[in-house]
Amino acid sequence: MHPFIKKSLIVSCGGLFLTFALGRIFFFSRSTLEGIGSSLTYPFMWSASAISDGINHFTTQRASYTTLRAEYDTLYQNYLKALDEIIQLRSTVHTYESIKELIEFKQRYNFPSAILAKILIKNIDQIQHYYWVNRGIRDGVKVNMVALYQNHVIGRVAEVYGNYSKVVLITDQHCKVAAYLGTTHAQGILQGYNCIDCCNLRYVSHLCTVNDNDLVISSGEGCVFPEGFCLGKIVFHLIKEKELYHCIDVKPVINLKALRTCMLIDPTAMHPL
Prior knowledge:
There is one protein chain. Strands 2-3-6-5-4-13 form a six-stranded antiparallel β-barrel. Strands 7-8-9-12-11-10 form a six-stranded antiparallel barrel. Strands 1-14 form a two-stranded antiparallel sheet. It is rod-shaped. By secondary structure, it is of the alpha+beta class. The protein is built from two helices and 14 strands, in the order ααββββββββββββββ. Helix 1 runs antiparallel to helix 2. The chain has two domains: 70 residues; 163 residues, Rod shape-determining protein MreC, domain 1 (Thrombin, subunit H, Beta Barrel), CATH 2.40.10. The protein is 37% helix and 29% strand. The longest helix is centred in the first third of the chain and has 77 residues.
C-alpha cells in the first residue's frame, strides 16, 4: 500500500477510535457508537482500498511495460544485427556465384597472367559493341588480350588505360575471328555486324558441308584469338546458286548483355593442361 494512504488511514482510524472512546464514556451506549462508527469508517476504508489497488495496478503495469520495452529494444537490436549478417552473407554468395564458373574454368587451364575483370559499362548500339572493364595497365592488361567467359570468346582488348580497358565484342563489325565448324571442320572467318544476337561466318566454301546448330570454334589462326573456344552456333545457312561461299548466321551461345564479369588472358602465354 502507498505510504501516504497508509498514513492517512492510520490517522483516520486513530481519530475515530478516540471519538468512539470519548462518546462511549460520555454520550452513547456501545451498540449505538459501534453502528455509527462502522457506518462512518466503511466509505473511507473502501475508498482507501480502491485507491491502493489502483496505484498498485498502475505500478505493476508500469513495471511490466518497462520490462517489455527493454526486452523489445534488445530483440530489435539483435534483429538488426542478424539482418546485417544476412545481407553480408547474401552479398558474398551472389559474388561467389557470379565468378564461380570463371574460377572453375580457370582451373582447367594454365593461365599465368589471367586477370578477372568486372564489366563496368556496356555499349551495344548500331555503331559499336564494347565493354569498359575495371582492369588496366596497373593490373597488367595489354592490347590484344582476349576476353573469355568460361569456354567462350567474347572479345579482345582494344584500348588500355591506367585503371580500365575497352573490350571490343565479337559482335562488333570490326572484330574478326578465324574459326571452323565443330563437326565438318570447315574453315571460315567470324565477323560481327553490330547485332548482339548474331554474327556472320564468312568465306566457308560452297564445297563444304554446313549443319544447323553446329558449333563455331576459334581456330587460333591470326595469333590474336586462342584455339579451341566457342564463338556461337549456326542458326541459319544458305548457299545461293553460282555463289562460292555459304551465307551463315551464327548466334553467340552466351548472353552478352547479361554478363557481369569476364577473364582477360594473354593468348601467347596460354598453355592448356
